[in-house]
């Protein structure tokens, strides 16, 4: 029972750590590289659990790696989406992350139901999905906002033209100017100034609401249901 508890809880323990580290990491290496890294972590984790299903250490490491990938995905995907999406589609696209996670959880348990004698098939299938995701991230352009914050103006223009399917720079110039203004504000700010902004009502009120919501969700036992529902 204690070993099963460790296997079930390690990814939940590592995900918050990865989420905290992901912000500074993707600010340094870029959103696109962050997406690729989290897919590599997920792929290695699932592959370990698929190849060594009877090794407890492999299961522990695999669960840790998938937890790190999950934690990175929550903030990296949201950051990338909000920076590249137009205002009219931004909210819809951001909500796709938790929706797809819920669908993925359902598919995993559906696979566990179909392959009750050997769950390695589910691990291999999850590995396959992750590899597809990794390949698709190679086709994504970098965030124009991040490129502008690094002074890479021409690359930002090309990335924005690719995202908007524009054929001429003039078609995205107005939006690029808006991105440039946001990038300058970001360059003039620091992590300390970001924490100072939490004193503003428009910052701390939604933060309090969302944290209270998650406290209720977690204390209602949702993670326990997800971990032990296979039983």
UniProtKB/TrEMBL annotation:
UniProt keywords, alphabetically: Membrane, Transmembrane, Transmembrane helix
Q: Where, if anywhere, are coiled coils annotated?
A: none
Major facilitator superfamily (MFS) profile domain: from which residue to which, for each copy? Answer: 1-231
Q: Where in the cell is it found?
A: Membrane
A GO cellular component annotation here is: membrane
Q: How does it sit in the membrane?
A: Multi-pass membrane protein
Q: Show the stretches that span the lipid bilayer.
A: 6-26, 33-54, 60-80, 92-116, 122-140, 207-230
- What's a Gene Ontology MF term here? transmembrane transporter activity
Name the record gives this protein? Major facilitator superfamily (MFS) profile domain-containing protein
Source organism per UniProt: Graphocephala atropunctata
